[in-house]
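Hi R.,

Here's the input for the alpha-D-glucopyranose complex you asked about:
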Amino acid sequence: MVQQPQPQPQRPGWWRDAAIYQVYPRSFADGNGDGVGDLAGIRNRLPYLADLGVEAIWFNPWYPSPMADGGYDVADYRDVDPVFGTLADAEKLISEALDLGIRTIVDIVPNHISDAHPWFRAALAAPPGSPERERFHFRPGRGADGELPPNNWVSEFGGVPWTRTTDPDGTPGEWYLHLFATQQPDLNWDHPEVRAEFEDVLRFWFDRGAAGVRIDSAALCTKDPALPDFDPASDPHPFVDREELHGIYRSWRRIADSYPDPRALIGEVWLPDAERFVRYLRPDELHTAFNFDFMTRAWDADQLRASIDTTLDLHAPVGAPATWVLANHDVTRTVTRYGRADTRFDFAAKAFGTPTDPALGLRRARAAALLSLALPGAVYLYQGEELGLPEVEDLPLDRLQDPMHFRSGGTDPGRDGCRVPLPWSGTAPPYGFTRQDVDPWLPQPAGWEALTVEAQRADPGSMLNLYRSALRLRRSTAALREGRFSWLESAPGVLSFRRGEDFGCLVNLSDAPVPLPEGGRPLLASAELTGGRLPVDAAVWLG
Ligand code: GLC
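And here is the predicted structure with alpha-D-glucopyranose in place:
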């Protein structure tokens, strides 16, 4: 039999199996005592991240921004917002992190900019049909007086994704498209200046030592130039997953690859169709993308197994590593979600305020941590997950900031509840996040004293110490990086797999304890093992 030539293994890259920590700068640590997290605060806490054992940090946007969407409304892609510090601070942060072995990933927001960006100000000041407006999607309205939006699209944040402008003489003018908030006008990716601008922005951050970029809303940037009404039967979609995107990311890949230490492109690609999703990960496109399928699945063995199988099956042919994500700054915190009757995450049905059992949620989140850290590929860890923070569901309404909440007319709780500042120390707010007499930008709840970094460091059984031990073992165990993944036979409701020859992971999602396999030596467990059994809602690593 003729042997098929084997595909050349790609040059190994750090992004293929790294543990990457997500820092939401406003809420990580406040260095200057104004109640908002900043780069000085992050620099002070880099030793914490090195000790935790993460290999890279993805920073949510730190650019100058009016903060209409937590910084995803960027007014200048080549600077740092004064609330966070300066460009020089960012450069120091990047190099100090690298000295500790931690790479930096910056967030690039190509779909839209801020309405305070000079390009958009110029567009508003210029007349219809002007070159300044061509960088965006300006259109006359429908209806006798142009009083209706140009098409029937719906904003990703709910409501109409069009805002009508006012001409200099005070009369209503054209409309502009914004798939997100009004303050986030969408760019026209058919415009060569838009393409050139972002290629330059990539080089700007790569030249400053960024090891990669996280690409915001990566599947939305290009639009059908006719901006037709959305028709559920229409294929292709007028603004999701359009073919032209692949050409853009190929050009970005050439830039990333032009560096001696190639930079990584990480896509935020929300697509229900996994086969469409992996097309972005072909060898000359993005390096990796967040695995939202895994993140949104229920705490259920069949569900998780199906997601793992689909993920691995679809990534293998394109040679891209899988990623494993449990949470981020847009979704309900894991402990709260896993403590509910319905453990899925769904933007359309957030189950806000439905009962949750925090002890059960924490138990499952601990098991999920060991599961995701044992799977082949890269892992993303959102700040506070290593502390087992719950979603804060009772923020005072007058403190909420998220446009998702406001645009839903208040029916969607928004995403502030997973963005509450981290508790570092002490027994009451601000828990060492900022100066003692300062109220953080989002209030922290009472009762977090056992969740602080300080308290958890001292407790060998804490979530923090579980993550620390797991990340250490992950770094020192070759099988966890390179070992072949294979399922082992297991009882219903139990996930059991092997990495290489001598590492195993067992996760019990059934309703009764299960015996540990013969010969396996427990290396780390998410709950106490009694009588040679793995309790319910627990995971163990075996060597
Ligand atoms: C992405 C970000 C989210 C932001 C949106 C618009 O989904 O993760 O936080 O609101 O894009 O930029």
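One thing worth noting: The radius of gyration is 24 Å.

Cheers,
M.
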